[in-house]
Here is the input.
Amino acid sequence: MIDGKKVLFSGMQATGNLTLGNYLGALKNWISLSNEYECFYSVVDMHSITVRQDPAELRRRARNLFILYVAAGLDPEKNCIYYQSHCSAHAELAWILNCFTYMGELSRMTQFKDKSAKHADNINAGLFTYPVLMAADILLYQADVVPVGIDQMQHLELTRNLAERFNNLYGDVFTVPEAYIGKVGAKIMSLQDPTKKMSKSDENPNASIYLMDDPDTIMRKCKRAVTDSEGIICYRDEQPGLKNLIDIYSACTGKTPQETVKEFEGKGYGELKPAVGEAVISVLKPLQDEFARLSKDKAYIDSAIKANAEKAMYVSSKTLRKVQKKVGFPERVR
Here is the structure.
C-alpha cells in the first residue's frame, strides 16, 4: 500500500496504433481507478523490442502513447505514468527473477508459442523470458491488483508463483498480486471478423478503428462492418457482427445493449451503422483535440515525463534494494 491506498499496475505496449477497443476496454476505465488506487501506468517500450522496431518510430509511438494516457484523462500528478525503459529497476529485477523461473514454466506460455509462429525468423531469448520482465513490472511496485484480460491471466499466474516462491525462500518481500475485478470494459471485436478482438496489429485496416482516425474514416469503417443477412436488430451471439456494433454504440452512448436494440426497433442495419459511426466520432473527437493540444505543449509533457520517471524510480528502487539484499548482493556505497 502507498498512503493507505492499494497499488494498481498496468501498461500498454508502445507499438501499433491504439484502437477503439483499447480505449473502451481498458484506458477509459483507468480514469476512475486513480480515486481508489495508487496507480502506476507504464508505457511498455522494453517489451516492444522482442519484435524488431524502427528506433525513431518506437520513440515516436512511445511519446504518443504517453500523451494519449494524459489526453484520455489520466492526471500525471495523481497517477505515475512513465516509460518502462526510463526505470532500470525493471531490467535488474527481471534478471534476478529469471534465476527463480523454470524453463518449463516459460515453455508453456501460449503467447511465446503464438509469437514464435508469427516471427519464426526472430525467436529470441527476450521473447522467451518476456513473462519474467512482466512479473518484474508488477512486483517492483508491490502491486495489489492488476487489470488483465483472459489472454494475460497465464502471465499473472506466473507472477504470483514467482512472488510466492521468492517469499517462501526469503520472507515477506513481494506483494502477491490479484487480478483486478471491477467494472468490466466493453469487449470490442474486429469489424471484419467479429469472432476476434479488435487489434492494433490486424493486417486489415478496415477491421479496427484507431483513436486518431478522422471522422470520414471512422464512418467508412462502420458502414463496411460485417453483419449478416437477417436484417433484424437483435442482441445475440448468433449475430456476432451486429452484436459488436451494438456493443460499440452502447459503450459510446452509455446505453445498455437492450436500450440500443429498443432504439433501433423496426430499423435496419443501414440506419444503425451510421449511428454507430456518429457515436464513435463524438467520443473520439474530444480525445483527439486534447491529444493535439498536448502534443504542442512540449514543456508540459517533458516535465510530466521527468517527474513521473523519478517517482517510478524511487518506488521501484525500494523493492529492488530489498531483493538485492535478500539474494546476497553487496550493499552499494552511496
Observations:
- The longest strand covers residues 7-13.
- The CA atoms of residues 249 and 276 lie 5 Å apart.
- The beta strands are 7-13, 38-44, 80-83, 145-146, 178-179.
- Residues 215-293 form a domain with the Tyrosyl-Transfer RNA Synthetase fold (CATH 1.10.240.10).
